[in-house]
Design brief:
single chain; alpha/beta; Rossmann fold; 2 domains; six-stranded mixed beta sheet; five-stranded parallel beta sheet; 15 helices
Length: 365
């Protein structure tokens, strides 16, 4: 039995009440449906002299979908990916792909392979003919400097790329170091990928939890279950993955993430030697953060308290949505000790982050 196509999968979601009708999503589904049909049975053209003689090129340009948080970009790409009838395909979070790319480039350099970027692109093209990136974002100079040449060779090898992003290509790596060297990559995207804005006035991710409390106390199985339920609602039951975020030459482990949301335990964030740069990277990468098992912060937990305050500042500045289970209400989380006075600002922010105005604010990551 053939797989349902993109349109059929989307209509099934509407019929089941999993999704609400959205003209902007329907327009994007039509574009993805066309691309899926063009890719049916696709394989990249041969390279070398024979390839130049026989080359027909990819059947279609790739697709770059951008739009505000919660419009359904990742969900629609998942429907497309599941429907695509192509032998070699991969869906991967962009940060994870870049970590793998850097590791493989390092291995190729160790082997003293010449022209390592073309070599890496050929290897990727052998493995993957359709490459789907979720959360496309360029935040550091190391990624910015290799993307142009790597993608140029991927396109030359016939890899079709589909990506989702919160930013249009022109906004990628905005104000980044040596950004002028990155501009040819933006032109490359616009040359090889159709750029489509997924509009719409509704933040579907937020609608899933409108009116739902986002701060649960006391701690226990009931609070954890509420967080798990909200995480499932926000991610539409999508498959979870772990992620390693690159931060200043090291990595921050994100144990559970899907569709722009990430789930942590307090100890994973605040008992490890993480700092402001790490928390800023998390806040920028994820539109929604869920934190379970936040304890009452006793004086002897000075380091954990300081990290927690820094974390909340980073989430607040990025307008990241916060859903949390804690041992006490915000004003009682750090009631004693020499950090209690400074914590009053954190408590105030925790209260504000539960407000409707904050929850509707656009994520600035």
């Amino acid at each position: 039995m053939p797989k349902p196509d993109v349109h059929t999968r989307y209509e099934n979601c509407l019929a089941l009440g999993v999704l609400n009708a959205d003209p902007a999503q329907a327009e994007t589904v039509a574009i993805l449906q066309t691309l899926a049909e063009q890719l049916n049975g696709y394989r990249p053209p041969a390279t070398g002299l024979l390839g130049k003689i026989l080359r027909n090129g990819p059947p279609s340009r790739g697709l770059y979908i951008h739009g505000a948080v919660g419009r359904g970009k990742s969900m629609l790409m998942d429907l497309f990916f599941d429907s695509a009838m192509i032998a070699k395909k991969r869906r991967v979070h962009f940060h994870q792909f870049m970590l793998e790319a850097h590791a493989r480039l390092h291995d190729l350099q160790t082997e003293q392979t010449e022209n390592i970027l073309p070599h890496l692109a050929r290897d990727i093209a052998d493995e993957t003919w359709l490459l789907c990136f979720d959360e496309f974002h360029v935040g550091n100079i190391a990624d910015a400097m290799i993307l142009g040449r790597l993608f140029e060779h991927l396109f030359e090898n016939g890899v079709v790329i589909v990506a989702t992003s919160n930013w249009p290509p022109s906004e990628l790596y905005k104000n980044g170091l040596q950004r002028e060297r990155f501009l040819p990559f933006i032109a490359l995207i616009e040359q090889h990928m159709t750029v489509h804005r997924l509009g719409g006035a509704v933040d579907h991710r937020y609608e899933q939890i409108r009116g739902t409390p986002v701060y649960f106390t006391p701690l226990g199985a009931a609070a954890t279950e509420k967080l798990e339920t909200i995480f499932a609602q926000l991610t539409g039951g999508a498959a979870e993955e772990s992620l390693r975020l690159p931060v200043q030459g090291r990595f921050v482990e994100v144990p559970r993430t899907a569709r722009g949301a990430a789930m942590f335990g307090f100890e994973e964030l605040c008992s490890r030697p993480l700092g402001a740069a790490d928390f800023i990277a998390i806040a920028e990468c994820f539109a929604t953060i869920l934190i379970d098992r936040v304890p009452q912060l006793a004086p002897e937990r000075r380091n954990e308290t300081a990290r927690f305050m820094t974390l909340i500042d980073a989430l607040y500045e990025a307008k990241t949505k916060l859903i949390m289970a804690a041992a006490a209400p915000p004003e009682q989380l750090c009631p004693t000790g020499d950090q209690a006075f400074a914590f009053q600002r954190t408590a105030s922010r925790l209260v504000e982050m539960q407000s409707e105005d904050y929850r509707q604010a656009a994520h600035l990551g």
